Description:
Elements: H1 16-35, E1 47-52, H2 58-69, E2 73-78, H3 90-100, E3 104-109, H4 114-119, E4 125-131, H5 137-151, E5 158-162, H6 169-180, E6 184-188, E7 204-206, H7 209-213, E8 218-221, H8 237-244, H9 248-251, E9 259-261, H10 274-277, H11 285-304
Parallel strand pairs: 1-2, 1-3, 3-4, 5-6, 5-8, 6-7, 8-9
Helix pairs in contact: 1-5, 1-11, 2-11, 5-6, 5-11
Amino acid sequence: MTYPRKHLLAIEGLEPPHLADLLDLAESYALLNRSGKTQRDLLKGRTLINLFFEDSTRTRTSFELAGKRLGADVINMSVSTSSVNKGETLLDTASTLNAMHCDLLVVRHGQSGAPSLLSQKVDAAVINAGDGTHEHPTQALLDALTIRRHKGRLEGLVVAICGDIAHSRVARSNMHLLTTMGSRVRVVGPPTLIPAESARLGVEVFHDMKAGLAGADVVMMLRLQRERMSGGMVPSAREFFRFYGLDAEKLAHAKPDSIVMHPGPMNRGVEIDSAIADHLTRSVIGEQVEMGVACRMAVLDMLSRQLPRNR
């Protein structure tokens, strides 16, 4: 089982065997977690730092749990109270982190490319936990694992990613991963929220929800990211829900056994109806959170294998 890089900065460029290895390893951790067992000696003596320049509950906590279940020493750096907030540059931060001799560095940043820049300046293995509108690779891995557990495969599935595609790093990572693994990916949303390069990424573009969901195996809803928007890209929340919010009427166009996903946090009544979000058989949103811990354990495990033992 191999992984070709020191860092995990993006899904783009990874080959099917590497992705399959990560998903297989994550599956083994999902089973281990459900058994109540841990592998606390695997990362014993290793230090994991969570460096989040943007707020996150699910992702940061998930990495913290993953690190602790593997036995790492986990440090959560609060940017709001750190030197970064007092004007320290990203490169100054990199120098500080190097002096701490950390082994694994998880970075979330509002600017696309920030984790990549840090990876060039630190000795640690860097994991991108979301950068700007670029990528969120571990989210795509956990989404793929969730889909595979329910459908038994990724190849040949019709996956509809709906909503605010333009501002979603989750959508970009999923487009790269799912098309690489043989899924047929559709993006569905208003023209203002569909990036121009979507077709170049090998996905089909729809502006009508019913047409986009027709025959879909997986329906993945995205949060409307108003904080990243400039100008009137969408009408009111009520109008957006009318045309692009997932409710029972629109979901009826997908396959009867289709599953519903959402990376969270959800805007109920904006991009998804509560009855669908909480549906006992169709919604796998809770399982996505569970698979997030398993996938991040797999990533930490895989990257740590390439680190020198004595640092």
